[in-house]
Amino acid sequence: MSTLMVKTISQENPLWVSWHDTQMMASLNPQNVMDYFCRKSNPFYDRMCNNENIRMQRLGLENLNNMVGLEYILLHVHEPILYVIRKQHRHSPTDAIPISDYYIIGGMVYKAPDLANVINSRILSTVTNLQLAFEEASNYSRYHPNKGYTWDFTSNKALSDKSKAAAKKDATSNKDESGTVFQMQRVDMLLAELLRKFPPPVPPNLHQQQLQQSGSQSNANVQDHNAAASDSNANTASSSNGTTSEASPVTALGVEIKQEMIDMKPPPEKRAKQN
């Protein structure tokens, strides 16, 4: 790949670009990694930075803090494979604004994506996968005027077997697996016992209705008892007038009273003895 083409791609999207130097990549360490990154063939290196001025003057990197402008610093080291370099613009010895980060892993130099690029990449991959899934699902959908939309996986054997297994699993899961007959009866007995010990509270309106119903029932019972008592008195009066009834009178409390039958016929006349 020519240098011009690399520069063109790096200007369009530098995340697609990588760079390495085969002569130095095997001997990288924290002391020479900045020299490795600041080589002229590296497309990520800007030769108008303060690092280049220091190299031309043969000064140390500690002099970067006293300068103003664009610079590169070693931000993070994880020997022997990972090095992170930051590009920043320095305004004062204590004020510097980060611009971009680069990481060297295994001797290969890449530009680290920023948060916007990471989010855009994740959204793009998610939308692409969803679109592929919808397109594949639409190939198995069928429409019939009477049945509506249905799935037909006969063209794909794996999906057909999977759908059959899922249907069989649903059919078996619909069975009642709540417990044995003994367990259900035991639970019912325990629930009835708890309901007897701790009855639910009766609402005030329902309690008043129950009281009214019980009062009306008691009045009806009293009326029935009075009617039964009047009937028994009538039967007693009729029997005293010479009419007997086969049934025994019943009191208002429902207790049967035994009465002796009195024979009202006159005694037989005594015949005189004949001498």
From TrEMBL:
Keywords: Activator, Nucleus, Transcription, Transcription regulation. Residues 198-275 are annotated as: Disordered. GO terms for cellular component: mediator complex. Residues 257-275 have a biased composition (Basic and acidic residues). Residues 208-218, 226-248 have a biased composition (Low complexity). The keyword NAD does not apply. One of its GO terms (molecular function) is transcription coregulator activity. One of its GO terms (biological process) is regulation of transcription by RNA polymerase II. It is found in: Nucleus. It comes from the Eukaryota. InterPro entries: Mediator_Med6, Mediator_Med6_met/pln, Mediator_Med6_sf. Belongs to the Mediator complex subunit 6 family. This is Mediator of RNA polymerase II transcription subunit 6. It comes from Glossina pallidipes.
